[in-house]
Amino acid sequence: MAEREMSRTKETFEPRISLITLGVRDVEASAQFYERMGFERSKSSSTDSVVFIPLRGIVLGLFSRTALAEDAGLDASPPTPFGGITIAYNTRSEEEVDRLFELMVSVGGKPLKAPQKVFWGGYSCYVADPDGHPWEIAFNPHWEVSPDGAMRLPAG
Predict the structure, then answer these.
(1) Which one of 3.20.20.140, 3.10.180.10, 1.10.238.10, 3.40.50.300 gives the CATH number of domain 84-150?
(2) Which residues are bridge partners to 89 per DSSP?
(3) From which residue to which does any coiled coil extend (predicted)?
């Protein structure tokens, strides 16, 4: 992209994400899975057909996979089971990775990869929610997770 176009884009587009919506088979079953993990749905914004879960600075949405695909003008049947997205939760320690892996599995998550040391120098695992959306739970010794849970990448 040309430098002038990038400058114009930065003036009109804030680089942030407001909402991540997961297309799910059963909105209520998925909402209950996330609630068992400690998330709370917004009672004022959620309905029977869509659940919104406020997080720190972002919202997680749960919506019928078919309805979400229709809304976006897409085919609801992907060519592969993996939809090309993961949700990541970064922790402050390897022990926290282990604890959250056990918690997610105990509330109905499917273990995909057990906690282990990884090639980039950290420690991580993967657990799928009831609809197969993979969550990476990771400790990255090169990144900081602030006391309020915000992610801080190294300067540079």
Answers:
(1) 3.10.180.10
(2) 137
(3) none
